[in-house]
Amino acid sequence: MEKAEAGKVQLLTHQFFNETWGIEDIPEGYYSEKDGVKLMSSGKIHTANEGCACTMGNVLTQFIEHLVLSEGEYALIDMEAGIEHFGRGIDNGMDLILMVVEPSYKSLALTGKVSELGTSIGKPVYLVFNKVDGENQEWMKK
What distances in angstroms separate CA 134 from CA 33, 140, 141, one per listed residue? Predict the structure, then answer.
């Protein structure tokens, strides 16, 4: 479902947001709040046969692109592990990429690809090592 237009590939998608908006514009019932921190969830597959997450990726991309934060406000977007969100362009609206790295070969190997993809869209990539102990600290750094 793509069409070529003037040498560019354009995805045929629905425009969900037309105007900018702020955190205060999110209606009650769409988030949980504790101590001034609002938590929302979007685009997760919960059961088998739910279908493609493409539409939710499109909504999330537009959600981020149209969000305007006030001074002292921050948005932390928790993505599924992996790199699919880079392919969907969700990360383009981010200021930076923060990757949580587990002490497993797959997680450590993914750091290179995430760094490469982040750099390709002009976003700095920071790594946070999780479950670090005396036994794995050195090889995780390497």
Answer: 36, 11, 12
Give per-residue pLDDT as tens, 11-65: 556 777 788 888 888 888 888 888 988 888 776 777 888 777 777 888 888 888 8
| Nearest Cα residue to 116 out of 134, 95, 99 | 99
Distance of alpha carbon 133 from its chain centroid, rounded?
Answer: 28
Q: When comparing pLDDT for 90 and 126, which is higher?
A: 126
What CA–CA distance (Å, rounded) separates 70 from 36? 14
**Sign of the CA dihedral running 141, 112, 97, 33:** negative
Residue with tokens 């237009």: 5
Pairing of strands 37-39, 32-34: antiparallel
